[in-house]
Structures are given as structure tokens and as C-alpha cells.
Amino acid sequence: MPPTIKNAREIQKMREAGAVVALIHQRIAMAIAPGVTTMDLDTIARDTLADVGAISSFLGYHGFPGHICASVNEEIVHGIPGRRVLRDGDIIAVDVGAILDGWHGDSAWTYPVGQISDDAKRLLDDTERSLEIAIAHAKSGARLGEVGHAVEVFAKARDYGVIRDYGGHGIGRTMHEEPHVPNHGDPNRGMILRTGLTLAIEPMLTLGTEETRTLADNWTVVTTDGSWSSHFEHTVAITPEGGEILTKRLPVPV
Ligand code: MG
Ligand code: MG
After folding, report:
1. Fewer CB atoms < 10 Å away: N or C end of the chain?
2. How far apart are CA 215 and CA 169, in angstroms?
3. Among all ligands shown, which has an atom nearest to the Cα of 232?
């Protein structure tokens, strides 16, 4: 799918799809605790989608068996929800994609389980920060390369691995449109961003390597050295001021 420019009405539809994604994240965030399984989180997503009349972007996508992706610790992306029990000190990247009235929203967040180590906390905080920086660079008139470059410069200065094998994407009536949105690159390259372009921006940083491999389940992507990985993603609409977040998080009551 080539890049598509959305009009105001279409952006509004994507805000509504994004709100579904945010609602699922809110309910999952409230449930995450030691002893919970990744399938429990998938069930929350399934039920929330049914509540609001939306469907998962991921279920059945090239045969993917879950409503969400749930990637724990050294798993980077595309973890399959199942019987794995979350333990105190784990981190879990939850990727949620929803289709409402034919429009997609896509957002990933990495959550702490109970008490996590200082290193893990730093990784989560800095990956979230790298996403914020990328979104600030995603303004009309900028080159796409500026977005990934901003992530790379920030992450490298703090010694993180920056995953290159996976990245963000255009999004709209299909989950994956052009352009591919890498988390590295040359600020003078790539397409010129235009108002109304909608992108999923999704840095993945690790405490070690940048190398990945896929497990025998043919989905789960892990770091080759077992180092922990963190993934934060928002769907945004390009504006002159930067990306407008369409999957804005909802507050999580404590
Ligand atoms: Mg995603
Ligand atoms: Mg995505």
C-alpha cells in the first residue's frame, strides 16, 4: 500500500480507533501483576474489542493466533499470548491493534511487573522518551529520516541497542502502509512528511545487542544475547507541530 493522506474526517475515524486501543491498554495495565498469564491479557483485549464492536488488527494476520502481542523480557515483538505466567521483576511489551469502522489504531507499551530492576526501569523510561522525541520530529515538511535519526542519536548516547530489523509503518485502512519507519537513519533522506499522513512510530531498544532471531513458533522475535528489550508505539497524524497522537493513553487508576 502506498502512503495515503487522510482528510479531517478520516483522521477523526482513526482517533476513534485509537481510543479503542487506548481503552484496551488501560484495562491491561490495570491487570498486569505477578501471577497473571499473557493469555489473561489477551482475554481482556478480546472482551474489550467485543464491548465496543471493534476487531483485532493482529488476530489471523498471516495466521497470528492472538488478539495482542505479548513479549516478555528478551522478547522484542510478536510474542504469542499463552500460558506464560508473569513474575515479579519481568517487563512485558503489549502491542495492541484494533480496527473500528475499517480504520486501524496500533500502539505498544512496555509495562513493569511488580518491582523491576533499576536497569529495566531506565530502559522503559528511555524508550518511552525516544518515542516522544520521534513524535516531536514527525512534522510536515520534515524528512522521514529525521524521525529515525532522532531515536538513534538519543538511544546511542545512552548505550542502548537500537533494533533495526523491525520498525514503524504507515497506517490507515490497512495496518501496514508505506512508508517503513525505521528507528535509525540519515536525517537528509526519506520522503517529505505531509500533513494528514498517519504513521505508527515504534522504537525498540535493548540493554545489549541489536541482533534478533525468531523462535521456532515462527513469531516471537528475541534478542540473540538474551538482553531485555522495550517497545513503545503510538499511531500519529502528521501536523506542522509534530505528530498528533491518535492512540493517546488513558489514565490508569491505582
Ligand atoms: Mg503495534
Ligand atoms: Mg505497528
Report:
1. C
2. 23
3. 1
pLDDT in tens, 57-83: 999 999 999 999 999 999 999 999 999
List the CATH number of the domain containing 88. 3.90.230.10
pLDDT in tens, 211-233: 999 999 999 999 999 999 999 99
Q: Is residue 50 part of a domain?
A: yes
Angstrom CA distances, 66 to 23, 34, 167, 209, stand at: 18, 21, 20, 27
Span from the CA of 106 to the centroid of ligand 1 (angstroms) = 5
**Domain-located, residue 164:** yes
Residue 223 structural domain: 8-245
Cα 168 to middle of ligand 2, angstroms: 5
250 is a domain residue? no
Give the distance (Å) from ligand 2 centre to CA of residue 165. 13
pLDDT digits (tens, 9 = 90+) for 149-201: 999 999 999 999 999 999 999 999 999 999 999 999 999 999 999 999 999 99
Closest ligand, as measured to the CA of 69 = 1
Rounded Cα distance between 26 and 251, Å, is: 7
Domain membership of residue 251 (yes or no) is no
